[in-house]
Amino acid sequence: MMESILESCAFKTVISTVGGFVLGGALGLFSSSFAPVTVPIPGQELKTQTAREIFREMRMSMLSYGKNFAAVGAIFTVVECSIETYRAKSDWKNSTYAGGVTGGLIGLRAGIKAGVLGAAGFAAFSTLIDMYFHSGLSLSPD
Q1: How far apart are CA 142 and CA 139, in angstroms?
Q2: In a shared domain, residues 79 and 96
Q3: 3-class DSSP assignment, residue 49
Q4: Tens digits of per-residue pLDDT, 52-98?
């Protein structure tokens, strides 16, 4: 019974959504450290930000990245699980197709050309990641 729960599409979607949110939040925190603290406006006096303003910007950046990564994780997992269920196979093609659909949906917001490029890029990336994890390769120099 526990195995069927862990293999269910709903469980996989929840895990990838939460994982995406956490990873996105961490990347948002990292990227906010590079954001300019003060932006000089010509003709105005340079204002120093307070700690409260800096923490607010960091929180907003973390939430923004977290939500975006959570959405991508959820879309990818739902599509991959649906394809795997339809095909009744678990192989590298599932992640390639899911990457194509996910990248296409994300890119389509910017137009057809961006949708096609997003689909191709995300499909290629998903295929490489899937092959890496299933090949037993290691990055360690041993």
Answers
A1: 9
A2: no
A3: coil
A4: 888 898 999 999 999 999 999 999 999 999 999 999 888 888 999 99
